[in-house]
Write a structure and sequence with these properties.
Number of domains: 3
Order of helices and strands: HHHHHHHHHH
Distance between the termini: 29 Å
Number of strands: 0
Radius of gyration: 20 Å
Length: 309
């Protein structure tokens, strides 16, 4: 089987922390255009009333959105906000994924048999902690992905300019805009993503359906991506709309959700579902497979360095 074999020594917290951040950055590099397409579809119709029809829509579907962006703004537009996205993943994924096992062990007091409740609690905790660390990078990433070069010019010229402009025009709180819905979203995403991956992988291994290798990691990650998309899409759309909104457009995340419901109907909460699934599904597969391999590679490197000649 291709890939690194599991070592007898379990990976340390530092290895998990570094491995999670690196794997998430690799996954982001590969799937970022899908994430940008998702953001564009989610904010579409934000300033349109219910009187507008689909005929006035600028983007239609995942492929249509990507092709329209390439045609009107150039291929580089698909990677708007990539720098902030990578900054986000190094700080965000390192905490929410890298510390998950350690926090789970804390809640189970070192027991090898973790209940679903303990897993959910661990996922919620690391998801919330990650938002507290990485929220400004998420705001800048969403703003960059949402801005269209063809409509009214660019709001920000660079990542540094975005941080400075938001802080200057909206105050320090502007960089933490949408923290509440983002905490809610990432608590949900983390629980759905990590706990589902954890449970599917444990079930496959205990039933001897697969060994702890690439096919098992791929299957578990794909299932986690689908479950996460179904559960987290409504909160994700509200988070994106609220983060990207102009100053004073919405008084709160709740007001944003109510406005969406009134003007666009319940289906608005699942705008961009297909790119969300394509992105989360592919992101989960790339991230978890890379993460598992990085953990093994790093532990193998550490073990070989410590081994006597």
């Amino acid at each position: 089987m291709v890939g690194f074999k599991a070592t007898d020594v379990p990976p340390t917290a530092a290895v998990k922390f570094l491995g999670a951040g690196t794997a998430a950055c690799i996954a982001d590099l590969i799937t970022f255009p899908l994430d940008t397409a998702k953001v564009r579809l989610q904010i579409q119709g934000e300033r349109q009333g219910s009187v507008h029809t689909m005929a006035s829509a600028q983007y239609r579907g995942v492929l249509g959105t990507i092709l329209t962006m390439v045609r009107t703004e150039g291929p580089r537009s698909l990677y708007n906000g990539l720098v902030a996205g990578l900054q986000r993943q190094m700080s965000f994924a390192s905490v929410r994924i890298g510390l998950y096992d350690s926090v789970k062990q804390f809640y189970t007091k070192g027991s090898e048999h973790a209940s679903i409740g303990s897993r959910l609690l661990a996922g919620s905790t690391t998801g919330a902690l990650a938002v507290a660390v990485a929220q400004p990078t998420d705001v800048v990433k969403v703003r960059f992905q949402a801005q269209a070069r063809a409509v009214g010019g660019r709001r920000y010229q660079s990542t540094v300019d975005a941080y400075k402009t938001i802080a200057r025009e909206e105050g320090f709180r502007g960089l933490w805009k949408g923290t509440s819905p983002n905490i809610a979203r990432n608590a949900i995403v983390n629980c759905a993503e990590l706990v589902t991956y954890d449970l599917i992988k444990d079930t496959l291994l205990k039933a001897n359906l697969m060994t702890d290798d690439l096919p098992c990691h791929f299957t578990s990650a794909f299932g986690a991506g689908f479950c996460t998309t179904v559960i987290a899409s409504p909160v994700d759309v509200v988070k994106t709309r609220y983060m990207n909104s102009a100053l004073g457009q919405y008084s709160s995340a709740g007001h944003c959700a109510i406005t969406m419901l009134q003007k666009e109907g319940p289906q608005a909460f699942y705008k961009g579902f297909m790119p969300s699934f394509l992105r989360l599904g592919s992101w989960n597969v790339v991230m978890f497979v890379t993460y598992e391999q990085l953990k093994r590679a790093l532990m193998a490197a550490c073990t070989s360095q410590e081994a006597p000649f």
